[in-house]
Design brief:
With 240 residues, the protein is of the alpha/beta class. It is built from 8 helices and 8 strands; from the N terminus they run E-H-E-H-E-H-E-H-E-H-H-E-H-E-H-E. The relative contact order is 0.16.
């Protein structure tokens, strides 16, 4: 097998709907969370959630494979569900590192793994503007520039797939801002309260948001360092 043969299939943003129609019908679920430093306390819960939901597509924002982060679940999900497909939305300029990270996994599940390259050029993001409702785009334009590309990328993926379920294993600034943008659009977030590196979070996290949103279901009680996942001490779940 040559290097070209082993590369992960790329699907253009405009062709994503056609690629999806090639596979089994069903809903998509997005997976997000901390990229590293989390325990395995909710791995089985997450895999069960995908199975019970009958999802046929799992989508993420192109993060590389990391055994201490949420992406470790993707190979497990592919192994557990024989017809499941996965799609990563990745910033175009970062494709090389993505291919290197995921090539072996993708080769183990032929025909079930693609990457969608996304061209993001701040501040106008002209290539992706059409995929966002006006109200959401107005919110994006008011956001600070900090990691804005990644917030736009994650929000775009949800808009393109039409997903109504997001599953998060922890989650920091980017996931938080995506959740705020999607709040009120009928997207349900299943948030597993996970600490990162067993250290106290300094800034507001997705877990903080999940305690207050009617569009979130916060799962707690398994991570012994769970309290560290909440920057706002007033929002930390009471000990059981």
């Amino acid at each position: 097998m040559t290097a070209a043969d082993s590369s992960i299939r790329e699907v253009a943003l405009e062709d994503f709907a056609a690629w999806r129609a090639e596979g089994p019908p069903g809903d998509a679920v997005h997976i997000k969370g901390f990229c590293s430093g989390i325990g395995t306390y909710y791995d089985e819960d997450a895999i069960t959630f995908v199975a019970k939901g009958g999802f046929t597509l799992v989508v993420w924002d192109g993060d590389t494979l990391e055994e201490t982060g949420f992406t470790r679940l993707l190979p497990q999900l592919l192994s557990s569900h024989p017809t499941l497909r996965v799609a990563a939305f990745r910033i175009s300029s970062h494709l090389e590192s993505f291919q290197k990270s995921w090539q072996k996994v993708a080769a183990s599940f032929p025909g079930r793994f693609v990457v969608v390259p996304v061209e993001l050029q701040a501040p106008d993001f002209a290539a992706v503007r059409k995929f966002f409702p006006d109200v959401t785009w107005a919110q994006i334009k008011e956001m600070p520039e900090r990691r804005l590309n990644y917030v736009v990328l994650g929000s775009l993926a949800v808009q393109v797939t039409g997903a109504k379920n997001v599953m998060a294993l922890g989650g920091g600034y980017v996931a938080l801002k995506e959740a705020e943008l999607l709040d009120g659009q009928g997207v349900l977030w299943i948030v597993f309260a996970l600490s990162r590196n067993e250290k106290q979070e300094e800034f507001t996290t997705l877990m903080d948001w999940a305690t207050k949103s009617t569009y979130a279901k916060l799962e707690t009680g398994k991570d012994p360092h769970e309290a560290f996942a909440f920057a706002d001490t007033a929002l930390k779940p009471a000990p059981s």
